[in-house]
Amino acid sequence: MWQKKIGGFSLHDLFWTFVAGCMIGVFVEQVFVYVAVGVMESRAGLVVGPFNPIYGVGAVVMLLCLYRFKRWPALLMAVSALCGSAIEYVFSFCEETFFGTRSWDYSNEPFNLNGRICLKYAFYWAVLGALFIYCIYPALSKLIGIIRGNVGEILSWTMLIFLIVDMILSAAAVARYKQRYFDPTPHSIVDQILDDTYPDRKIEEIFPSMKKSREQFGLMEGEGPGKREEASEASKAA
Questions:
Q1: Least packed by Cβ within 10 Å: which of 77, 109, 173, 211?
Q2: CA nearest 26: which of 234, 206, 202?
Q3: Are 44 and 50 in contact (CB under 8 A)?
Q4: Pick from 100, 51, 92: which is nearest to 206 by CA?
Q5: CB-side exposure of 114: number of CA atoms within 13 Å?
Q6: How far, in Å, are 32, 80, 112, 122 from residue 109 at the CA level?
Q7: Which pLDDT value is given to residue 214?
Q8: Dihedral (C-alpha) 32, 35, 36, 37: value to the nearest 10 degrees?
Q9: Alpha-carbon distance 63 to 57, whole Å?
């Protein structure tokens, strides 16, 4: 399976490019935010580990779409800007549709499209694409080349299973976080485990945008309909 090729690259190479992209993107964004606003906060996209799938997908898409333009830097950067913006738009749309939150909002930026993408960050994607193809991937491919043979296959399957579980757990934790606003009472053992392991404060530490989304829509912690109903019933009983 791992040797099957897509666009000239094996699944093994694409998978580990995805994993590396997930981690490198988190690190770069954390540094960028710290330099820009002086705040060090999580930029992870999953509840376990320094992984953000949007950067992993971006790395794979860049590799598949941009590598063929390696000899034409200007064209490569233009395609990178388009691909990166498309990825951002799709992820933003899906996040808001399924979870009711937005991890970024470019509404205040000039030349933005529905606040999901904008010209400034398209330029950043163009630069990032060039850096990835000309600087990062050549070094990364050498490291990926080390993960070969039986050991490499075991590591690949182990990491794949881990990431799948991490994604499922992350989706469940975020869904429960949103549900607690409307109904804080756990209705199953799964709800109870999620409440104990990933309470609101923990989720907001991992995903700072979740708290911002709550504040934006007036969904402050402890002020959801469920909490208000409990408070109302308590006052009536008193």
A1: 109
A2: 206
A3: yes
A4: 51
A5: 10
A6: 17, 20, 6, 12
A7: 58
A8: 120
A9: 10
SS3 118: strand
Measured distance CA(149)–CA(34) in Å, rounded: 40
Measured CA angle at 57 (ends 52, 60), to 5 deg: 130
> Residue 133: in which H helix or E strand, if any?
none
The domains of the chain are located at 5-237
User: What are the φ and ψ backbone dihedral angles of 108, each rounded to 5 degrees?
Assistant: -90, -5
Split at pLDDT 50, 70, 90, the class of 203 is very high
Give the Cα separation of 17 and 94 in Å (integer): 23
Contact present, 163 and 110 (Cβ < 8 Å): no
State the angle between helix axes of 137-146 and 11-37 in degrees (0 to 180), rounded to the nearest 10: 130
Q: Which amino acid is at 196?
A: D
The pTM for the full model equals 0.80
Q: Residue 102 — φ and ψ, nearest 5°?
A: -135, 125
